[in-house]
Amino acid sequence: MHSNISDRGPRFTFPVGYQRFHKDQLFNFQLNRWYSLGYARREDMVEAGSHVSTFADWKREMLRLADRALAEERLLNAAFYYRAAEFYTHSEDPDKVILYQRFIELFYKAFERESITRHLIPYEGAFLPALTIPAALDTKGTIVLHGGFDSFIEEWYSTMRTFSDYGYDVIGFEGPGQGGALRTYDLPITHEWEKPTKAILDYFQLTDVTMIGMSMGGWFCLRAAAFEPRIERVVASGHAIDYMKSMNVVLREIHLWFMDHFRTWMEQMAEKKFSGEGQGAWVVDHLKYITKQHQALDALEFYLLLNEDNICPERVTQDVLILNGRKDHFIPFKMHRLQIQALTNARSVTGRVFRREEHAENHCQIGNFGLALRVIWEWIEERRRQSS
After folding, report:
1. Are 269 and 254 in contact (CB under 8 A)?
2. How many angstroms separate the Cα of 383 from the Cα of each of 314, 319, 336?
3. Distance between CA atoms of residues 180 and 185, nearest Å
4. Which secondary structure element, helix H or strand E, spans residue 231, and what is its range?
5. Which of 1.10.287, 1.10.150, 3.40.50, 1.20.1440 would CATH assign to domain 21-110?
6. pTM above 0.85, yes or no
7. Per-domain residue ranges for the chain?
8. Among 250, 257, 298, 313, which residue's Cβ finds the most Cβ atoms within 10 Å?
């Protein structure tokens, strides 16, 4: 199933510099996210940052910016301000689905003249949403791209369009637990990412692809590559080889012991601790949402699956590029070295660390996203030359 959107607009430009839109990284990173990916105006993010202290403030301010952008016919800005409003809206708030639908409606209206084809890929009795963008000129090959814990595939459009301009056919998809796969087709997240990847590769009859996973998607794409030989090159950005190992060792062991021996009490404490504001509260709420679990500890069990054994690094035989920021506030920097060391059978492993002087030291290189895309493109070109 698919529908077409044709023609081609101007190239994206990515601003350089991680901005101080807000004193709290909880809000500052998200304000930088939409700006750095090319979808938000700087002055709008400055304005929002000056009025936000709570999740309720965030939703109100983003909706205000969205409505103003829509009145001024800035459809792209409006779309992503609705998306931003959805981001910190609680999973049980009925507005969450409404805001998602509004984002999708405006996104495709904003890009109605672009060369985008939308697909629905059959998967386990439901569908995985996917987008394809053809190479601007003669194709050099195919790139398959996806996000991770909290992104929609539409957010990566500027990424997809950039690689299309570089000469690649690009396919972006949402797996279980992501975007429309969850919100429209009710598919909870899975660590067995080779399954949705197989569905995509089968549907498009692909071989010899480069797969890019962003954020937690870096873990997912390495897991997929371990079981899918049609993937030749793997790019993993901003991920942990083992999400439990990314926690403090002592706290992790205490956490696991209490889960085994005092689960009911732990559940009560978790629900109390994660019921308010802050990063932890949002993470647990979103984790319950994407796993379709009602209890915090049941949802947190998903993190136990994202371990070094399940990523199966010894089975990865492709060329691999690992990208990380030196000051990533989500992923401890030690994960970079551990991941590279674990890829013992990869054809080649390249590690790239982005630092403050490059304005790309943050999670997924927010602050200089264009630099990250250029690094990925140059690496793909080099790997292709060496294999030809």
Report:
1. no
2. 21, 8, 21
3. 6
4. strand 231-237
5. 1.20.1440
6. yes
7. 21-110, 116-243+306-387, 249-305
8. 313
